[in-house]
Structures
1.
Amino acid sequence: MTVRSRTQVGIVGAGPAGLLLSHLLALRGIDSVVVENRSRAYCEARQRAGLLEAGTVELLRTVGLGDRMDSEGLEHGGIYLQFEGERHHLDFRDLTGGRWVTIYAQTEIVKDLIQARLAAGAAIEFEVSDTEVGALEADQPVLRYTDAAGTRHEVTCDAIAGCDGFHGICRDSMPAGLVQVAERVYPYAWIGILASVPPSTDELIYARHEDGFALHTMRTPQVSRLYLQVPADEQIKNWTDERIWSELRRRLTVPGWELEDGPITERAITPMRSFVASPMRYRRLFLAGDAAHIVPPTGAKGLNLALADVTALARALTSLLADGRPEAADAYSDTSLGRVWRATHFSWWMTSMLHVDPHADPFGATLQLAQLRYVISSRAAATTLAENYTGYFPLAWD
Ligand code: FAD
Ligand code: DHB
């Protein structure tokens, strides 16, 4: 038996993109149903991003999601760039006329969003299977799924948002031949760890070392997060705690500064890829976040882009469904792709400047160092980094 229902917007995926979209639509009086194939506990524990642009922070505050972020988030006014054994500070507030970034983990944003949606009585179905989107030629596309109890559902929608991440089903449900993909796979990966030890730094350290890139970031005043460049085909079982800490120490230490270590509570390997699918819309199916694009994590852009996409999408769907005005929905893909390609360039640039390319010759490595030296010595070059890092495009929500 199939249970039939209807909603205005069917949302596939309860990651940050799908959850924020559902929240923003509700603020404008638009109903939605969110379906997610993982459990709530899994979504709330999945370790990923940690760094929010100033505009993302301001948006979350404006839409009533700022309370815990404001009490627990860590505001940073700059970063350290390290190479050839020297550490240099970039002061974003000075370079950009006051912009900053905030460390507040994606896990916490997802918890805040799920709590806010459930408190408002929203429909979020966790642990669904066999999600499908269909009738895409019509003005009433359908979302089908099987719930955790085994009942099949068919939801008739006015629009569907594919917020189902890189491995979701929505992108591949667009007609064959419509979607063009631009892609770059990098010849390295990251090991990311969480450790129960206070951070050894006040602001993030991005380090280019001849043995590879390392990043020291954090989650709270008691919890550090660190990343290490490893070969693309590396396996986590080859990395004992001792090996991880000794490699981090080799790449991060400078005279007069030491890395404190502590128990590692979480570890994973992340591949590095740039990927952009276009267009991000087919009729009433809209893609947002990692479902449409992936950036390598070096510029900390993925989560910020996902939240920017759904902010634009919520406005476009409100105009379409509440006011019958299609212009913003028609422009959604092109305007989003402008922002996506800016972040794609920035993430590629940061990644290529800071990692050791196993295939590079001395010419390539020397170019990287020349570029790093330019960034720390030219105000114009430092400003380019700072304005992209803190967020180049304003997010509009009123
Ligand atoms: P996702 O978070 O992937 O959510 C998609 C959801 O859809 C998932 O819950 C998935 O289970 C669900 N789903 C998939 N298929 C289906 C289906 N068939 N049916 C139902 N549900 C489905 N970004 C930053 O901005 N700053 C950072 O500091 C940063 N650091 C990062 C560090 C690491 C190690 C990694 C891996 C990523 C990092 N990112 C960062 C990127 C960021 O985490 C992602 O861009 C972000 O999660 C994208 O959100 P999303 O909602 O689009 O997709
Ligand atoms: C974090 C991850 C990043 O990729 C980055 O560039 C900055 C911060 C983080 O997990 O905190």
Note: Residues 49-51, 103, 204, 217, 225, 297-298, 300 surround 3,4-dihydroxybenzoic acid (ligand 2) (CB under 6 Å).
2.
Amino acid sequence: MSGRHWNKRSLLNLFEMPLFEVVHRAYVVHKKHFNPVEMEYCSLLNIKTGGCPEDCSYCPQSVHYKTELKPEKLFDHEKVIECAKEAKKNGAKRFCMGAAWRSPPKKGFEQVLELVQAVKSLGLETCVTLGLLNASQASDLKEAGLDYYNHNIDTSEQFYPSIIKTRTYQDRLDTIKNVIDSGINVCCGGILGLGETRDDRIDMLLQLKKFPEAPKSIPINKLIPLKGTPLEKMEELDHFEFIKTIAITRIMFPQSMIRLSAGREQMSDEFQAWCFMSGANSIFIGDVLLTAPNPSAQKDCELMNKLGLKPPLK
Ligand code: SAM
Ligand code: DTB
Ligand code: SF4
């Protein structure tokens, strides 16, 4: 399957198949490469909130939109380490730190390098998402022991300028190249429900396939239409189209971890279960994502128990 040649036609064929057929194919691929009852838990912390000069239409942290968010300075080192310890106690395998920057400023970047080393020494995998990176920043992060860098392409190249005007798709691809060249694992995916077409979803998946190697981790976010952002009133994407896209991602990327990222708080148990059956095998745990609510630990624990899913044994 993985050696198959992917193009618009072959992906459209999959999208046009009956839902059960696509989900069945995805589950077969999933079972071949993973233990289907295992769910990876990652934890997320916004270490620098708001005041971001970018204009991503979905994001409450952009200075371009009047949202309810209060900008904050970079978190204190000790406070971050406390959160990382708590995340480990709750079963997280990876601790991901996000900062609302276009690209990391010098002093903040040095502090992040120290945080990466400290979090890693707790026995957690590390991930950061800091915006655009040059080659030297990527290699400094590698040296500090960073395991993953999250940088999403979000949608198709064609649709991208309708969502973000302050940077180009190519800026994003350049950063991903710097991350790959430095030897850090790539965490790269997108958002569904931005108002994109099926064709855009296909192009986004084809773009992920063009990387020299498949991203080890693929976050699929469901748009959370946040108050004050231009996408606040966006009509919700059809649930089955969302599920099909997850299933097709699994078929195309048999060995990648697929994270059902933003949007779980707004989804029913059944909707999430369909996504897990279609190959999503990773989630963020904890009450908040970066700024938006995420299901509580108790709610997630109940859902995992009902579905018979559990974190992998260490
Ligand atoms: N500033 C960094 C950047 O843009 O790469 C890191 C943080 S950014 C918030 C990480 C990702 O979160 C975005 O690429 C997008 O996919 C996702 N995201 C942000 N706001 C979202 C929303 N309202 N709903 C769903 N996903 C969202
Ligand atoms: C990703 O793809 N999703 C996470 C993580 N990478 C950094 C972020 C989701 C953010 C959802 C909106 C918010 O919390 O502000
Ligand atoms: Fe800034 Fe990232 Fe939000 Fe875009 S998504 S406005 S780059 S924090």
Note: The chain has one domain: 8-307.
